Amino acid sequence: MWIQKEIRLRARARGFHIVTDEILSQLPEVRPMRVGLAHIFIQHTSASLTINENADPSVREDFEGHFNRAVPENEPWYRHRDEGPDDMPAHLKSSLLGTSVTLPITNGRFNLGTWQGIYLCEHRDYGGSRRLVVTLQGE
After folding, report:
1. Burial level of 128, CB count in 10 A (0-12/13-18/19+)?
2. Helix axes of 57-70 and 87-97: crossing angle, nearest 10 degrees
3. Among candidate residues 134, 106, 107, the one with its CA nearest the CA of residue 118
């Protein structure tokens, strides 16, 4: 069985946010699957998705601090400046982290590790709600 649908994540402030439950709440199609895959793609160039620790909030704070130092705003070599000082760094961060994740589905749920969660990596100060395309394959 193949299913594809678009879902929305609520707007969030800049930073790294665990969105696993918000995604699953919009995917009742996962529950009957015994085995399968979920491919989750974000339709934006200034936000990204990744999987990492879901227990200690300081991990997400460290992610934000690291990426802000690695890809700073207001660099004189940036030519793309039309959408504000956070836009070009947001594009670069999105490319570094990636726009999709693929997860195994086992017995009606994402088969993540004990301390793993899906992160929305919001790289803009005011990014707004984010659209995801989720493709499910399974039985």
Report:
1. middle
2. 120
3. 134
Q: What is the pLDDT of residue 9?
A: 98
pTM for this entry: 0.96
Structure confidence by residue, pLDDT tens digits, 75-102: 999 999 889 999 999 999 999 999 999 9
> Residues 6 or more apart from 107 whose CB is under 8 A from it?
34
* Distance, CA of 91 to CA of 47 (rounded, Å): 8
pLDDT in tens, 23-35: 999 999 999 999 9
Judged by DSSP in three states, 63 sits in helix
Q: Is the dihedral of CA 1, 129, 55, 98 positive or negative?
A: positive
